Amino acid sequence: MFRRILFFSVILLMVLSILGIGYLANINREAISINLAWKTYEISKIGLILLSWATGAFLVIFIMAIKDTRKYFLNWRASRVHKKELKIQEMYSKGVNAVLAKRNAEARGFFDKILQQDPDHIDSLIRLGNIYHRERNVNEAIRLHQKARDINPTNIEVLFALEADYEEARRLEDALQVLRDILNMDRSNLTALYKMRDICQRQGKWEDANMVQIKILKAASSNEERTAEHQRLTGMRYELGRSLLEGGSLEKAKRVFKGVLKLDKDFIPAYLGLGEVYLGESDISGATDLWEKAYYATSSVIFLLRLEDLFLSLGEPNKIIELYQKILSSKPKDPILNFFLGKLYYRLEMIDDAYDVLTSMDGGAENLPDLHKLIGNIYLRRGSPEKAAQEFKKAMRFRKKVVVPYRCSKCEYQSADWAGRCPQCGKWNSFSVYLEKPC
After folding, report:
1. Can you spell out the DSSP letters for 304-368?
2. Fewer CB within 10 A of the end CB, N or C, for the chain?
3. How confident is the model over 235-291, as pLDDT tens digits?
4. Which pLDDT belongs to residue 438?
5. DSSP letters along 322-335, please?
6. 254-267 as b/e, with b when 16 or more CB fall inside 10 Å?
7. Rounded to an integer, what distance in angstroms lies between the CA atom of residue 436 and that of residue 439?
8. What strand order describes the sheet that includes 431-433?
9. How far apart are CA 272 and CA 408, in angstroms?
10. Mode of pairing for the β-strands spanning 406-408 and 40-44
11. How far apart are CA 343 and CA 333, in angstroms?
12. What is the pLDDT of residue 187?
């Protein structure tokens, strides 16, 4: 219905226009002179009107033709770009599928083709760089990921990929700088904080590691996470104290160790470190008093062993013997304390005292292989090889032949040397004295 009305309206308008032009032509018969530079033309008024009308119509048609042509060209170009994007997306999907299927060579082929058509395709640069990273071609991975970063410097995925490349290439300072760039854009990015903390630990930059760990602790979302990160912060502050102690900064190390004990009063390595500071300051009584109090606070035999070594080095064995006897007066059946007191007597050539203590042990002490080794050695010193052989045979029934005095309570790693941090699981304050039990 609307189309019919529009059609008849156009016809009516054309008829009225023709009638109007005819009427104007009838009443305007005189001519008009048009002067051009080279000639003068005469034309009727109605002719001039028709010429002007025709010129205007031509210009409108010409402009519309240009617009339509431009629109057609843009649509054609957009169509080509769209087809190209669809083709690239299809190849990219195939490349990703090949990566997931561990067909790296096939995936490389797809990503290379994409980059031939679109050298700035960031996703392909990332994936191809990751493939080279897994294949240990780190230089090529860095080149591709750096190119992707040049195209889009704020792409977090690109930055993490580049950081991983630098770590693999052992360019840790470059990796740290990339992590700083990430944190400048997103200060609460936990992944970046974790990575920065781990690199600082590997480099022994404990002061920087502590600063990062404080930020991680503040970002912890659950009580479990806060507890774990607080324990890690305590361990890192202890390591900072150790580094200051080893560097000769005794006063700073003292403050750090005291700060660690405020965080965790049962943190055994901090007591030991603080005692070493006192020894470095020639404050013998400060160290001995601290370690004795630490034993009563934690019941860790490690402090007694340190005091034993210290007093023996000072030529004062009677003080550690008195301390052992004082402690044993309140728990005389403790097999560990009796064993180490007997071992101390043997070390001091007090053979009879060692024999009396070691042979009077009960409550499961017979299951300590090191006890039988000591008693066997005592029998040898006393000229009783047959009894010594019997004790050595008892010791041989056990799984290990070598004394392993320390064990990690977290992962059960065993070591002949004490450490503030377990070298296997990385946990702090986990080493304790361990005397082997039978299989």
Report:
1. HHHHHHHHHHTT-HHHHHHHHHHHHTT-TT-HHHHHHHHHHHHHTT-HHHHHHHHHT--SSGGG-
2. N
3. 999 999 999 999 999 999 999 999 999 989 999 999 999 999 999 999 999 999 999
4. 41
5. HHHHHHHTT-TT-H
6. bebbeebbeebeeb
7. 9
8. 414-415, 406-408, 431-433
9. 17
10. unpaired
11. 16
12. 92
What's the CA gap between 8 and 16, in Å, rounded? 12
Handedness of CA 427, 431, 434, 436 (dihedral sign): positive
Q: How far is CA 359 from CA 80, 325, 398, in A?
A: 94, 17, 19
Count of residues in the chain: 439
With 0.90 as the threshold, say if the pTM is over it. no
Distance CA 79, CA 390 (A): 94
Question: What phi and psi, each to the nearest 5 degrees, are found at residue 14?
Answer: -65, -45
Place of tokens 């226009």: 17
- Residue 198 and residue 172 in contact, taking contact as beta carbons nearer than 8 Å: no
State the pLDDT at residue 436: 55
Task: Decide if 393 contacts 413 (C-beta within 8 A).
Answer: no
Report residues of the chain scoring pLDDT below 70.
1-4, 6-8, 10, 13-15, 17-38, 41-51, 53-54, 57, 79, 81, 362-370, 372, 379-380, 382-405, 434-439
Report, in this order, helix, strand and coil percent for the chain, each rounded to 5.
75, 5, 25
Q: Which residue matches tokens 């048609």?
A: 61
- Decide: 179 and 191 in contact? Cβ < 8 Å: no
- Take residue 329 and report the two structure tokens written for it: 């007066």
For the chain, give the mean pLDDT.
Answer: 83
Number of other residues whose CB lies within 10 A of the CB of residue 46: 17
The dihedral over CA atoms of 111, 112, 116, 117, expressed in degrees to the nearest 10, equals -20
pLDDT at 18: 64
Tokens (6 digits) for 288: 């001995």
Q: What is the pLDDT of residue 415?
A: 77
Residue pair 321/309 in contact by the 8 Å Cβ criterion: no
Amino acid letter, 306 = R
pLDDT of amino acid 378: 77
